[in-house]
Design brief:
3 domains, 14 strands, five-stranded antiparallel beta sheet, 9 helices, Beta-Lactamase
Length: 357
């Protein structure tokens, strides 16, 4: 086996300096006194420095001292002493230019088997444009969020005005049937206005359902329950939080089911209560509205579904949930159940297949 001769130290040094000089990324090689030993052509070009004015000069004196930042110098000295390693340090390079340049700097002490001659490698990346683009994006997102909040606020106010007009119309009509329809429309509009206010308060993030349903039920109760000693409307909800779009659908379901219970479960001033429940476990959840009223009519199955029933069915389909109506003894319990189906592989003969649990 032939052993190749080791390169001469001067040759190794020249090769290392050539590698630094040829780097496409701005690199600076410093000694222990923070003097420039070598730098890449890309560094000289990026910062408009003449090689003759840099090599052999302290880094702090380059370009009229623009690299003489107190914190940068402290980090360089700590790296030379072996007590620090700088990763992703950001600084502004000001100098005589109209606006500062944002730099991302990494500094590492080189371990090349010669402890008497300390060498530090400093790499520089100009992230000025990237940081400016991030700021523009953040400003646009902030402006969009403020605008959307303002729109939601205006929509909620407009809905309340519409609800007020509907209520005034209901007081003027002579037909009891028409008055009933107008009252239903008023209650629905007021509930949607409450949804809008809650979404605005959520700042477009996830909505905590307990506070959301409490506020929604308070709004419905204020407009539909005359005597709160006779009828109660309570909330039994865990600490679940859902995306804003899901909360809208859940809120509309609660509105329809609670309004339906208030209209039909307690005829003739009958006392009672309604409980809105929501509980989740992982991706599975159940939403329920239960009353202790008179229960379902005997001919309920033969009756044509009303508007509220159609709305709940459509929303349940949107939420990928199943509607169930049961006798509560006394009263009625309506629930929406969402069950997440997990796919597992089952061995059948020679080939596995996926089944839903």
């Amino acid at each position: 086996m032939t052993t190749l001769p080791s390169p001469h130290p001067d040759t190794s040094r020249a090769l290392a300096l050539a590698v630094v000089a040829a780097s496409t990324a701005p690199l600076v090689l410093l000694d222990g006194a923070l003097t420039v030993v070598a730098a890449s052509v890309s560094f000289f070009q990026a910062f408009q420095i003449k090689p003759a004015d840099a090599v052999g000069q302290p880094l702090a004196k380059l370009n009229s001292g623009e690299w003489n930042g107190r914190q940068l110098q402290a980090l360089l000295k700590a790296t030379a002493a072996g007590t620090a390693q700088v990763d992703a340090y950001e600084m502004d390079l000001k100098g005589d230019r109209p606006s500062p340049r944002r730099l991302l700097i990494n500094v590492h002490k080189l371990d090349y088997g010669d402890p008497e001659h300390v060498r530090i490698m400093l790499s520089v990346a100009d992230v000025t444009d990237a940081r400016l683009a991030e700021k523009v994006k953040d400003d646009l997102l902030r402006e969009k969020a403020i605008l959307l909040q303002e729109i939601q606020h205006r929509v909620a106010n407009s809905l309340q005005i519409i609800a007020s007009v509907i209520l005034q119309s209901a007081r003027k009509v002579q037909s009891e049937e028409t008055r009933t329809y107008l009252h239903d429309a008023h209650n629905r509009v007021m509930s949607i206005a409450t949804l809008q206010k809650q979404l605005a308060a959520s700042r477009l993030g996830d909505v905590e359902l307990r506070a959301y349903f409490q506020q929604l039920c308070e709004s419905i109760g204020a407009s539909m329950i005359r005597d709160h000693n006779q009828l109660t409307l309570d909330v039994d909800v865990d600490s679940s939080a859902v995306p804003a779009d899901v909360s809208v659908s859940l809120g509309l379901v609660v509105t329809e089911l609670v309004i339906n219970a208030l209209k039909h479960a307690f005829p003739g001033g009958r006392p009672g209560g309604i409980v809105v429940g929501y509980h989740s476990q992982g991706a599975n959840w159940i939403l329920s509205v239960t009353d202790n009223g008179v229960g379902m009519p005997k001919d309920a199955a033969s009756q044509t579904p009303g508007l509220g029933t159609s709305i709940v069915a459509a929303l349940a389909s949107q939420l990928k949930s199943r509607v169930q109506v049961l006798e509560a003894h006394p009263g009625t319990a309506v629930s929406l159940t969402h069950t997440h189906l997990a796919a597992v592989e089952v061995e059948t003969g020679d080939q596995p297949h996926k089944a839903a649990l």
